[in-house]
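P.,

For your records, the input lines for the assembly:
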Amino acid sequence: MDYGMYFFEHVTPYETLVRRMERVIASGKTPFQDYFLFESKGFGKVLILDKDVQSTERDEYIYHETLVHPAMLTHPEPKRVLIVGGGEGATLREVLKHPTVEKAVMVDIDGELVEVAKRHMPEWHQGAFDDPRAVLVIDDARAYLERTEERYDVVIIDLTDPVGEDNPARLLYTVEFYRLVKAHLNPGGVMGMQAGMILLTHHRVHPVVHRTVREAFRYVRSYKNHIPGFFLNFGFLLASDAFDPAAFSEGVIEARIRERNLALRHLTAPYLEAMFVLPKDLLEALEKETMVSTDQNPFYVTPEGEARQAPYKG
Amino acid sequence: MDYGMYFFEHVTPYETLVRRMERVIASGKTPFQDYFLFESKGFGKVLILDKDVQSTERDEYIYHETLVHPAMLTHPEPKRVLIVGGGEGATLREVLKHPTVEKAVMVDIDGELVEVAKRHMPEWHQGAFDDPRAVLVIDDARAYLERTEERYDVVIIDLTDPVGEDNPARLLYTVEFYRLVKAHLNPGGVMGMQAGMILLTHHRVHPVVHRTVREAFRYVRSYKNHIPGFFLNFGFLLASDAFDPAAFSEGVIEARIRERNLALRHLTAPYLEAMFVLPKDLLEALEKETMVSTDQNPFYVTPEGEARQAPYKG
Amino acid sequence: MDYGMYFFEHVTPYETLVRRMERVIASGKTPFQDYFLFESKGFGKVLILDKDVQSTERDEYIYHETLVHPAMLTHPEPKRVLIVGGGEGATLREVLKHPTVEKAVMVDIDGELVEVAKRHMPEWHQGAFDDPRAVLVIDDARAYLERTEERYDVVIIDLTDPVGEDNPARLLYTVEFYRLVKAHLNPGGVMGMQAGMILLTHHRVHPVVHRTVREAFRYVRSYKNHIPGFFLNFGFLLASDAFDPAAFSEGVIEARIRERNLALRHLTAPYLEAMFVLPKDLLEALEKETMVSTDQNPFYVTPEGEARQAPYKG
Amino acid sequence: MDYGMYFFEHVTPYETLVRRMERVIASGKTPFQDYFLFESKGFGKVLILDKDVQSTERDEYIYHETLVHPAMLTHPEPKRVLIVGGGEGATLREVLKHPTVEKAVMVDIDGELVEVAKRHMPEWHQGAFDDPRAVLVIDDARAYLERTEERYDVVIIDLTDPVGEDNPARLLYTVEFYRLVKAHLNPGGVMGMQAGMILLTHHRVHPVVHRTVREAFRYVRSYKNHIPGFFLNFGFLLASDAFDPAAFSEGVIEARIRERNLALRHLTAPYLEAMFVLPKDLLEALEKETMVSTDQNPFYVTPEGEARQAPYKG
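Structure tokens returned:
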């Protein structure tokens, strides 16, 4: 490690990733979070929100394809899509790749961060915000859902993890919130979400989210992928009342990719299916999990990766 | 990061993992490598050889199950097994779990390191070195293979990556070496190996190994898994002249796990199969790779992750 | 910074010194503190107690000569000497260099640490513990002084700084403690002490100690020296009721060094004198300081270097 | 150490100072050096050139008073002053505090860096560049001196250390360069200079500079001070053919400070004098030094702090 500028990210309480910064593009503090955007040699631009890397220029396609397309492809004809969070605009970009989409609403609480992304992160949004089908709402996702009567075919949840007892995102990880999402799904609708890192010493993040979503939806399926720029395996999930998302056949997915003319760089139909096959230790952790996060007793993750429940005192 | 002792591991040339050390159990220098063994809170004991983490107490089962069982399970009745490298003894331990095994020879060049493992790492070997079926040979694997007339049903290669132009392991990554291994396989035999990290900025490590093995064997299949303690995805491969290792049916694997009464913590038959399904970007990297590592022009990996070829000047 | 083992020491809350460890010689936890002893290339062995470097093999002579000889040389004939703290034995070693000394009592609370020093740090004590004039007492210095009726010509205080509200050393930094020391001085006696780092952002440590000692003694003189292995300037002071320690003439000191045949590596009579000349900003900080640390309201230093007073709840 | 941005500065080859950056104000690369300017909590703005901290907002007054006033005060009436280097403008600011000064020429090779300082570092220059007595020349100092016929009463040399064999500053550390400086001194003139860190493991930097200057000037006197923001002791020196700079009486300095109405924050006349009193180990290192840096065989400092001589291949 030569002299110069570095970013410290605490991947676990005991392991820290030190990333060399070639250049700091922007850094600051919105009303909701600290942000840092810098140039790195290995990953291009790197966006950090609060304590954790959010995405990197060179591998964001892996994260965003993994987040978006399983939900979009298990739905036969997603026309109206809601994105909860997703400030950089790349989730929106991937959603809009599906020609079936007529309207994509993105609700993010942090308008200032969205401006940073618009100005400094064109590699992410690639003009998606200007697509006539895109609607950007700057608001708390929960408040938005309580207000709107709109219904969606697909809802994509792209939030940061509820790390820390004072994290306001905790109320977006409760049964009540997932029921609110479900109430805004059209018949046959599906919810896809980023569902926490999967790490030996942090195993309960994903299991608790999975267990909680299960309270709200009939069918819940976890899947995972390795995100290089995070240096971690990440968990995702699909939830639906209409059908079991794991029951899709590879042939159907293959056909939809072709029909919708999707240009994918990471996913294939077989790989999409394989992501849903989980190793034994993770399956066991999912099975034995009993914690359900509720509005009254929402869960949060300690820096040590433990899941705890306590009332949220905004 | 509190005051105290830390270990710096350069995961890439631009990203360094800083691991908190609770206690240093042993550190030193054998004729072949530096070693560090320390206690960490998240992963238990951590073994570092030269620059890179080798395995950690708490997740070594993931690495060793992933390395050993695909090869052992695709073979109908592995009786004689050769392990190249594998100093800690956990590869040996996993091999010996198969009741079909009559003799397991482990050849490691670094006798001093094996002694460190025997004394300080019982969680890894769990007495495997004392199994009457185990034979430990302290020697250069290549010299051993050139000398011996023994034939094996399965050969497991568990070496460190050939990072650096002066790395003597380079001569264990050539077509000639793989042919030498093949020459010591019984009919129907299979080779399994650790085959390099899979990382955006280091993509060519695994592709070059894959491409090179393909010169020596009729059937070569890559697979991958995330190793939490490495904070990376790692590549592995199976090679055989007798059969396509990816053509096994899930049912057969399932049956063999049951018949051999294997106690596995991470692998299941479906997950084992899913590890062989690779994402599009990696498939493309494998396809377009043309570099073949030879004795005359063995490849090595630069710290930047580039693959280069140059004669080895021991 | 190559791969390997490092020690993190937080020199300030915003600046951390990362020291490369070639080898960890010993580390552990006594009932009173964490200790780390390691080999470094630049400074030889380095001893860390809790959060801070205590001394290093290659420059400990600078620290210990600076701490011990001003007090010993301003006294015309130091026969009986008390050392408060000083676990490594080098303070004792320097005291015993004065042939006038008949008895040197060292009181350190941490017997386990003294054992570590005896076994692993011979470069420090150089056999001082075996000198027939040396008496080692393992006890709390305050309890010892309350118990003993002995009187001393010189008392050397060699303690760690009272960083942190729960630091038991706080009660060894109060007016009452300094009065207790004074009560054990023979007529004409002098107290010398390590009195905290002198750093822009930590200015109040030394001023508060200075101001507090002034409550107990008629004459108090601060001096300072740069300790390379600490990467800091450190403050020291002499206190006496009998004479002004800054009033010594260079000639007298020169003569005493010669008479006592002192082999010094860092100090000379002129340099000893020059250490008492302080820069303007430090003089102003000493003058304007008003905080007096008392048993009822002992001071402590926050990690930010602020001095605060609060009752000590052992 | 919380998550966030840090700067790594290698104080020695084995010790690295990690400084927390609150905000990066500017960073870039001029034709001559890398620069980083950031905000820190403990020291305010911090300027790094290439590998090392250059000065910090909160303690630059210590460095610049130490560099400038000994030379200026030992001269009875400095009217014309030359500054070699000194990009930030604070050396110029201190020089201009002396009302005797009629013209102060600052020659710095790096015009781009001077622009950065003008725009982002007003706390340093405080408008000094706009003083009608100030003349800024962007040029190599050696070329400038070879060209000009001007003579000066005081020359202040404020350069970075010649670390690294390819460092162009090496030719500003030779006997020939010092003779060139001398040739531009008026009768009775004096040269003052920053003369390298003084550190146990880097002892030869200052001794070699001292020894080399001694070849060019009749009287050479080293002095030192601790620079908090560098976490090091730094060496300086005065050189003159006219008089011994260490022979000034405290009273004369005191009187000149008063007459010139100098507002000093760190220096006093006694402290100025005390800085010239060196400890025994440093005196011995100066005495035994034999290396003389010449144009044919200029010295440089290795990262390990060793002094070496070799022809410079620009």
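Two observations worth noting. Residues 105 and 135 of chain B are 5 Å apart (CA to CA). The mean pLDDT of chain B is 94.

Regards
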